[in-house]
Amino acid sequence: MLFVTQSFESNCGRLLHPRQFIVGILAMLQSFKLFNNCNLVFSRSCSGYVSRTRYLMRLKEDDEACREALKFANVLLYHKLAPLLQKTRSGVCKVASFKTADLKQILEKVGKDKHFINESFLLGCTDKSEPQFSLEVGEVERSALEQECRGTFVDLRKAFFMITPSESALAAKGQALLRWHQTNGFCSATGQPTTRNQSGSFRVCQSSGITYYPKMSPVVIVLVSDGSRCLLARQAMFPPGMYSALSGFCDMGESVEEALHREVAEEVGLEVENLQYSGSQHWPFPQSSFMLACHATVNPNKTQVNIDKAELEDARWFTLEEITTALQNPPRNPREQPPVFWVPPSYAIANQLIREWANQQQLLRSTHRLK
Ligand SMILES: NC(=O)C1=CN([C@@H]2O[C@H](COP(=O)(O)OP(=O)(O)OC[C@H]3O[C@@H](n4cnc5c(N)ncnc54)[C@H](OP(=O)(O)O)[C@@H]3O)[C@@H](O)[C@H]2O)C=CC1
Ligand SMILES: [Mg+2]
Fold first, then answer.
1. Ligand 1 pocket residue status of 292, Cβ below 6 Å
2. Which pick of 4, 179, 192, 245 has the fewest CB atoms within 10 Å?
């Protein structure tokens, strides 16, 4: 729509050929129809979304409103950054969340002041506009709390294999916010302590007046294909058998494209082309990364990898059959019983890239068979 309007505006200055004009009008009508259809779908689904967004905006900015919201909130608990998970009756794991009033009682039972709840940080709100907060309870004895809460604190990387992708995103955001506050207690200019606002959306140094906002480091991640195989790599610190797409932090001043070309050249000595954006994701490790995911190809005659052993333990080309097997058999307990080859959990954007590649390869094969 924007494109059509712009091209009409730019054409207004000169005389249009009648056929150009009719083609333009038809294109405009067509895009109006599309636009109106989109608008209808959007307006039906977004009214709740807009009011939730405005509500959250207010809670972030207004300390008093945020304190009020915390009185009737859902709070997620973390012990030394490990989220508390609970098992439902059907045996499914979920992120545990407690109503403020219930949590106050729990805290008192394990010897913590009920006002400790005010240390929580605003995370978001549910579809029903119930505010959600996260609270670090690392000072409390872990087993006492687990017993009282009927749950278990689980390492977040392990939790990604146990909970749904949307719960993983929530648990990841909660951990990232807690970690950011833990590591930004002092102003880097004055060395003086920083203080948080009630929601935790920023910290201020009273001495210098500098405001610090939670931040993410941009990281590129790319699935390289030679047309029939894809390239995956592993770092020595990965759990045994896990391979992932190539990734790396963006350097200062770099574009996504430049960072992708550089990382692939540095890590495996290949030159990529045909970059295609796939999606993005917040990833809580090591200190909150903003993952920008792309597909890329290499010339099928230039696939010899030259691994930078300082960064990677191994990098290999995988066939569609190997990838399909790995996607169909995600390990339940990868650190204890690692399969020979497995890929990151479905929440990780690396998994999305690998799935997209496998789907595209399957499509290519079936079109080839039909010919
Ligand atoms: N969600 C997903 O699907 C995936 C997420 N990732 C994430 O992407 C991140 C980056 O990928 P990775 O391949 O390791 O990156 P790099 O290839 O850039 O290598 C990491 C090394 O770069 C150095 N480095 C440079 N800039 C930074 C920075 N801003 N923060 C931290 N370290 C920096 C560090 O060196 P030194 O330690 O010597 O200081 C670090 O060990 C990983 O930490 C991982 O959490 C990776 C793959 C999949
Ligand atoms: Mg890397």
1. no
2. 192
Q: Looking at the CA of 222, which ligand is closest?
A: 1
Evaluate: CB of 283 within 6 angstroms of ligand 1. Answer: yes
Ligand 2 center from residue 313 Cα (angstroms): 11
Q: Are 242 and 351 in contact (CB under 8 A)?
A: no
Ligand 1 pocket: which of 175, 247, 263 to mutate (most atoms within 8 A of CB): 247
Which amino acid type is present at position 45? Answer: S
Site to substitute for ligand 1 among 179, 222, 249, most atoms within 8 A of C-beta: 249
Closest by CA position to 287, among listed 217, 197, 185, 199:
217
Does residue 222 have its Cβ closer than 6 Å to ligand 1? no
**Non-local CB neighbours of 131 within 8 Å, separated by 6+ positions:** 56, 59, 69, 70, 72, 73, 74, 122, 124, 125
Is the link from the previous residue into 286 a cis peptide, with omega within 30 of 0?
A: yes
Give the pLDDT score at 25: 41
Of 80, 113, 74, nearest in space to 94 by CA: 74
The closest residue, in CA terms, to atom 24 on ligand 1 is 249
DSSP 223: E
Beta-strand ranges (E) seen in the chain are 74-79, 82-87, 93-95, 97-99, 121-125, 131-136, 152-153, 194-196, 203-205, 211-212, 217-225, 229-234, 246-249, 273-283, 289-297, 314-319
> What is the structure's pLDDT at 5?
32
Q: Could you tell me the pTM of the whole model? A: 0.86
Ligand approaching nearest to the C-alpha of 238: 1
Alpha-carbon distance of 35 to 92, in angstroms, equals 41
Residues of the chain with confidence (pLDDT) below 70: 1-47, 334-335
| Encoded tokens for 351 | 């998994």
